[in-house]
Design goal:
Layout: E1 2-10, H1 14-22, E2 34-40, E3 48-55, E4 58-70, E5 74-79, E6 85-93, E7 106-114, H2 132-159, E8 168-172
Antiparallel strand pairs: 1-7, 1-8, 2-3, 3-4, 4-5, 5-6, 6-7
């Protein structure tokens, strides 16, 4: 499986960060490629989401489900249709990372694991001249770029102001 992991530090307690992350329909406001999110549930395990993505001439609705939750520390999810992908949000309190003007801090991590070869073409709506392998190679770097963008925007929103955000990015394999 390919993997992309993005983490950063947020200067808030885990409970506030977690509540923000559970409001997944709001993520469409942070993403360049996510048009809308519909939620069926309250964010606890079993909650389903329909995420409508649009890029270039391709639109796709990803269907996901929360598989586990450990408030205020972790939200696990999986894609339940058309591809093999899963991941989690992890919130780890670490007051030692807080600057002098903040009471506490948390390391927030988004991890996405996916199998590029598992994508089912039928529901993606590819133009007739485009191959799935071409699409996968074009989308892989966008996944990392988008993860970084979303984390930066979320940090600015939950802390109430923009600040330089140091992101740690890990991708496997290196070609992702």
């Amino acid at each position: 499986m390919d993997r992309v992991e993005v983490s950063t530090v947020v200067y808030l307690p885990p409970e506030e960060v977690y509540e923000f992350l559970v409001d997944f329909p709001g993520y469409a406001d942070y993403s360049k490629y996510l048009e809308r999110v519909k939620r069926d549930g309250d964010g606890s395990p079993g909650t389903r989401y329909a995420l409508r993505f649009s890029w270039w001439k391709v639109t796709y609705t990803a269907h996901t489900r929360v598989t586990d939750a450990d408030p205020p520390n972790r939200i696990d999810w999986e894609v339940i249709k058309d591809m093999n992908a899963h991941g989690y949000w992890l919130v780890e309190e670490d007051p030692e990372l807080a600057p002098e003007d903040a009471e506490t801090a948390c390391r927030v991590t988004l991890r996405v694991e996916f199998e590029p070869g598992s994508v089912k073409v039928g529901n993606i709506g590819l133009p007739s001249f485009v191959s799935l392998s071409w699409l996968v190679e074009k989308v892989k770097p966008l996944i990392q770029e988008e993860a970084e963008r979303v984390v930066e925007r979320i940090v600015a929103d939950i802390e109430g102001e923009s600040r330089p955000v140091e992101l740690t990015v890990h991708a496997t394999p290196d070609s992702v």
